[in-house]
Amino acid sequence: MTVTAVLVNDQAVDLGSVEYNVQITHARSDIKSTPEPSSASIILRGDPGLAVDVGDEIRVGVYGGICRFRGNVTDLARDHLDTTPATPVTTITAIGYLAKLGYLTTGEDAYSKETPRDRVDAVMADAGLDYLNAADNVLELAANNEPTIQPKLSYLQTLAEWSGGTYFDDCRGRIIFEDYGERGIAGNPGIWENAPEAFSFYTQAWEAFPANNAAPQIPASAVAWSPQWTKNLQTVINDIEIEYGNNNLYELTDASSIAAYGKRQYDLLTELHGATDAQERAQQILAAQAQPLWNLGQITVLVGRLTTVERDRVLALLSGSRVIINGLPEGSPYTQFQGIVEGWSETYANDQHLLTLSLSDPRASYQACAWQDVDASLTWENVDSTIQWYNVVVPDDLIGA
After folding, report:
1. What pLDDT, on the 0 to 100 scale, is given for residue 175?
2. CB-based contacts of 71: which residues, under 8 Å, 6+ apart?
3. Sheet containing strand 131-134, strands side by side
4. Most buried of 6, 7, 253, 314 (most Cβ within 10 A)?
5. pLDDT at residue 50 is higher than 80
6. CA 359, CA 342: separation in Å to the nearest integer?
7. What letter would DSSP give residue 29?
8. What is the pLDDT of residues 166-215, one digit of tens each?
């Protein structure tokens, strides 16, 4: 059985007495979208063996010890199948803890001059929720003595836009805010603090936990191939104007992109403190968006075709994790695609498990090959002389044919 635990306020549903269908969604469908709270839809055909009410906490565990969702019930429905006796059908809709930030406000007090990481701490300090903070720790935000009272969730979205980052709730119910340059690090399940349960809770083999942030590979045999590659001008920005400080403006352009695609301007109003902060933010945006990128979009993984180790590594993926897709069909822009997970949806129906990953190009999250990552034995004679620095995402991109 793939789903091995549905817990209502820590009380287990008797899965042996029901047929179930579980659907879970996480984060967002693409990098352009606003992150959404995780959600779960659970259909139980038969008597679940306990009462369920709006507001109850729901947790879903799979494969003996992997938590895939934690949140609160928002909607309930009860129906009956026409059997003798009638079979009850219970539909439970639950939403992740990120949604709670939509009901809590910030801005009642002044904000200090501080980094985005400090500001996220200030916003989350009284939320009463577990969170991990990997927001930008270099940029500075100006002090604001007259902040606007608004939902914490709205302000996190604003901070993400100002500083270049994103946020989501993970499978354990924690809120994670990450700078694009640090994506996938805070939530890595190989970090000791991210494995807080008793040892007996974890049934995976020790080697199933990732020791670093290396991208796991998904074999072509486990993918239901229907890749849709898209590339367009909608996300191209080659002229960025950032308002910072006290109505100051900083503008940066990419001449080659303007020559190729025409001027595509974007104005960003921020509370960044100084010109250096505005310059760094502008450079980030142009580096990520001055050129159109191929987007793989979504792929569906047939989880039952993975080995246990492969399965556990795939289920450890969160928003921001890297993953490598192998064996792409002939005619694809790449034979192998290393993407960043933006979110996922998955369906469990008794012993079937389908996982659909939403992926983005690493460059859209400022993830590219660093100088120290290049093999020290690589000589200039073996470097592809036609490659642009912009297109060096992994060290192998430097090697000529």
Report:
1. 95
2. 37, 38, 39, 40, 57, 58, 94, 95, 96, 97, 99, 169, 173
3. 131-134, 175-179, 165-169
4. 6
5. yes
6. 6
7. S
8. 999 999 899 999 999 888 776 666 666 666 666 665 666 666 666 656 78
